[in-house]
Amino acid sequence: MNLTELLDGTTSRWPQKPAFIEGDTIVSYAELGDTIARMTAQLRAFGMIPGTRVGLCHPNSVAYVALTFALWRLQAIVVPIPTECTSEETTAITETMQLEAVISQTPGGESVTLTPEGYITRLTPATLPDNHGLNIAFIRFTSGTTHERKGVVLSHETVRDRVVAANAALRIGPEDTVMWCLPMAHHFLITIVLYLSQGATIVLTRQVLARPFLETANRWRASVLYASPFHYALLARDRSDLTLPSVRLAVSTTCALPEDVAEDFVRRFGLPLVQALGIIELGLVSLNADDPRGRWNSVGRPLKTHRVRIVAPEADGVGEVAIAGPGFFDAYAAPWLPRENVLHDGWFHTGDLGWLDADGFLFLVGRKAAVINLAGRKVFPEEIETVLNRHPAVLESRVFGRRHAHLGEVVEAEVVLAQPHPEAEALRDFCREHLAPYKVPTRLHVVSRLPRTTATGKIRRETALVSHE
């Protein structure tokens, strides 16, 4: 199976239907297919062969989508790299994922031009990757540089299964027009791939200011919004007379939905925000389409194809959320760890803490792990701590997320310093040299010691989220 089959089926049914709209430019499914065919020929001439791992570092665009499908048509493996990454971060992904080529905005020694913003460059990894016989489509490098498991491996079959499961709940069809504002390097499979497989039209919006977004949504009669609380907070603050009369579904994803954002959006547009729970290892696992107003803070019931249970619940019913269902990841890439070695009798333990009410609605209350969700981007504290701890004046550090009304969370850090004490801004400048801008802590708190667990002496993370107001 190859994911290009999903798009080919759509193209054969609706060749002249708009696939993408960007500004005043409309790209039909037939035109998208022609672009993919041209890029496939370019990549084949470059020497692309099945199983090649290719880093894709390209801005949101129709070209990003076409490059992905062209690589898949040649049975290459796509490894997305956010454009905000520093050269140091890109090198870490390149080496750890054993990439044999990278598509980026910067040409290299053996580069070939693919798009006005993209060049492909050949790389020589220290050792060639072993794909273990899997029909791999995608590897998402999801963890910081110190995390023990790097890269979620997804086969073509796995992505297809999760797309089918997700659309049973989302019900995307050819009559839908979807507003797109999330970074494709972070969100692609159960969004862009799903929409194209169903013949929907995707409106690309690089401008996320409320007024232009609303004007564009009304111009093209958008029916679906899929965005983060950050984006919905911006829209709710709009003071124009524009409404969203054609929207049937507004999905809030990437992080917890604040109550004020949920209430403000309903008050402004008369439209409830539907929370969803998506996990890169699992895909979309739940959606609160049944009671988004009454239980605004729930991520809903699990999809009909999935099951949820609470592991080792406390007296209040809160425990670790475990999930079973189709579309689970195939392996972790580095070091290679098959799915079967991770699951517990078919269940994936998410690291999220939550509870189920009497009607089966899932409520999340926190995380065992400390991943920070910032306006649709996932930030791994260990990666930032590694950089901070390299500074000669830092003995140790703890990075965490602080709740933010509009961004979901922002990055903060606590540091234990040696002599002499540097200024906080000097430490932030040091972070800017080695990290993408959104990973730089907004605040640095100097502390005498970091809290640790009694049993192991490891840095305690579960209290970090609420350490500072």
Q: What can you see in these coordinates?
A:
The chain has 11 helices and 27 strands. Helix content is 26%, strand content 28%. It is of the alpha/beta class and 469 residues long. Helix 2 crosses helix 3 (62-73) and helix 7 (210-219) packs across helix 8. A 9-stranded mixed β-sheet has the order 2-1-11-10-12-13-14-15-16. The protein has 3 domains: 4-129, Rossmann fold (3-Layer(aba) Sandwich), CATH 3.40.50; 158-367, 3-Layer(aba) Sandwich (Rossmann fold), CATH 3.40.50.12780; 372-466, GMP Synthetase, Chain A, domain 3, CATH 3.30.300.30.
Keywords for this structure?
about 475 residues; alpha/beta; Rossmann fold; GMP Synthetase, Chain A, domain 3; 3 domains; globular
State the CATH topology of the largest domain.
Rossmann fold
Helix count? 11
Superfamily (CATH H level) name of the largest domain = ANL, N-terminal domain
Give the overall pLDDT as a whole number: 90
Q: How many discrete structural domains? A: 3
Distance between the termini: 50 Å
Q: Radius of gyration, rounded?
A: 22 Å
Structural class: alpha/beta
Tell me the number of strands. 27
Strand order of the largest sheet: 2-1-11-10-12-13-14-15-16
Tell me which CATH architecture of the largest domain applies here: 3-Layer(aba) Sandwich
- State the helical fraction: 25-40%
User: How does the overall form come out from the CA principal axes?
Assistant: globular
